[in-house]
Structures are given as C-alpha cells and as structure tokens.
C-alpha cells in the first residue's frame, strides 16, 4: 500500500469526522501529500481544510509558500501572502 493511498484514505477519514482534525494534523498531511505528489495535492488539502472550517495557520502557509517558491510560481507566492494577511 503506497503512501499516496494512505494519505488519501486519511484525508477521507478526516473529512468524514472519523478523526478530529486540527490545523496541525492537516499540515502534516499537506506536507506528506506535497512530498508524494506535489503542489496540487497540497492545495487540495488546503481547500479541504477550508471546507470543513479548519483555519490555516502560519505553518500551513509556510508549507505552501515553500512549495510555490520551489516550483517557481512567484506570482502565486504573492497571492497566497495576501490571503494569509487577510
């Protein structure tokens, strides 16, 4: 069973309320999904956080800012920074 499968299953359980999830749990999952699949997978976790009402914290944005920077998406860095300040 691959890491991506485990991460996907864990996210589904978090969505279903099987596991109580806070920002720290989502951040760990986001970091793991980013290493496994990249920026899109990490952004999927951010979107799910927002759907369930879990507020992203500084660590959440740090993970995403680093991913954007590593992938050369500097315009997205600015947009995410502005979202973070809001």
Automatic annotation (TrEMBL):
Start-end of each PPR repeat: 22-56, 57-86
PROSITE patterns tied to this protein: PPR
InterPro entries (UniProt xref): PPR_rpt (IPR002885), TPR-like_helical_dom_sf (IPR011990)
Alphabetical UniProt keywords: Repeat
Domain of life per record: Eukaryota
PANTHER family referenced in this protein's UniProt entry, alphabetically: OS03G0856100 PROTEIN, PENTATRICOPEPTIDE REPEAT-CONTAINING PROTEIN
Family: Belongs to the PPR family. P subfamily.
Protein name stated in the entry: Pentatricopeptide repeat-containing protein
